[in-house]
Design brief:
The protein contains eleven helices and twelve strands. It has a six-stranded parallel beta sheet, sandwiched between helices. Strands 7-6-8-9-10-12 form a six-stranded mixed beta sheet, with helices on both faces. It is elongated. Bound molecules: beta-D-fucofuranose. The site of beta-D-fucofuranose has 13 residues, from helix 2 and strand 9.
């Protein structure tokens, strides 16, 4: 449709009447600046897709930035959102600490900040409005409880751990929840623990290194599915059977994990829901409407053992 001169003039006149001439003609469109962690995992890809789709469906104009797992890139993106005077900033903090300066800048510019997926540590909780995401400590507990119930026998159980990105909330909390549950069970011991940065490539590399020095491993606990899938390749290359010789436990429950479970190579995946987009867009609107929000909004999630994989697979959305 062509915009006639008259309709432009009447739009300007309407703007004058409403006193909003400084605003764009589609005055109601909110702009959201979103600083994403990166594209390190299947979970993250689904999370990004959900945010982009939901913004579109909600009529929110989205400025999206990918930090490639680097905090400095996220800080730069947030500063650029401030300079562009977006209405709301949301971000998934790659690590927990080091955000106070940039968030104080956002506060001074009166731009509300929403945390998604990962939490931060700060002495000043007024630097963000709310945090929406999963309870990672609980996910770690669920992983350990499954292990205590399913790894039978009397002997020692040597566990190797593939941690997420160093300093990230999911790595810190998934470790904490898991350790909390196994503390009272002395036969379960974490014998090796290293970061695999939440990627398949790193998960494979670190598992290879573990297996080179020590084959006496009964359980692998990976902080996400991608690292577990990478490690499965390393285990097979070492001539062992993943899911049988080594029990494998991971977190996220993405489709790749269901495929590995259906192939009998992954024993269980604890769910972590990445589809935060629709909820985030509602929160963006609520924040702009001045609604009071709880400081923490948790997503609900389950546990999927191998035996349930084939039945659940068709229902999976990520
Ligand atoms: O588990 C992992 C991703 O922060 C919950 O980040 C997220 C984690 C997710 O890379 O796969």
């Amino acid at each position: 449709m062509r915009t006639s001169r008259r309709s432009v003039i009447s739009a300007i006149a309407a703007g004058l009447v409403a006193g909003t001439l400084a605003m764009p003609i589609s005055a109601s469109a909110l702009t959201l600046g979103f600083a994403q962690v990166g594209a390190e995992s299947e979970w993250r890809t689904a999370n990004t897709g959900s945010i982009k789709e939901a913004a579109k469906a909600a009529g929110i104009s989205l400025k999206f930035s990918d930090a490639q797992q680097k905090q400095e890139n996220q800080i730069k993106a947030i500063r650029s959102f401030i300079a562009q005077k977006v209405d709301v900033i949301a971000f998934a903090p790659v690590v927990t600490t080091g955000w106070d300066t940039v968030l104080a800048e956002a506060k001074r510019a009166k731009i509300p900040v929403i945390l998604t997926d990962r939490s931060i540590e700060t002495k000043d909780p007024s630097l963000y409005v709310t945090m929406i995401g999963s309870d990672f400590t609980e996910e770690g507990r669920k992983a350990a409880k499954w292990m205590l119930e399913n790894v039978k026998g009397q002997g020692d159980v040597n566990i190797v751990e593939l941690q997420g990105t160093v300093g990230s909330a999911p790595a810190i909390e998934r470790k904490k929840g898991f350790e909390e549950v196994i503390k009272s069970e002395p036969r379960f011991k974490i014998t090796r623990s290293q970061t695999g940065d939440f990627t398949r490539a790193k998960g494979k590399e670190v598992m290879e290194a573990f297996l080179k020095t020590d084959k006496n491993i009964q359980v692998l606990y990976a902080h996400n599915d991608d690292m577990a899938i990478g490690a499965i390749q390393a285990i097979e290359a070492a001539g062992m059977k993943p899911g049988k010789d080594i029990t494998i436990i991971s977190i996220d429950a993405v489709k790749g994990a269901f495929e590995a479970m259906m192939a009998g190579k992954l024993n269980v995946s604890v769910e972590c829901n990445p589809l935060l987009g629709p909820q985030l867009m509602n929160i963006v609107k609520d924040v702009k409407a001045g609604k009071q929000l709880p400081k923490r909004i948790n997503t609900e999630e389950g546990v999927f053992p191998m035996e349930t994989a084939a039945k659940e697979f068709p229902n999976r959305k990520y």
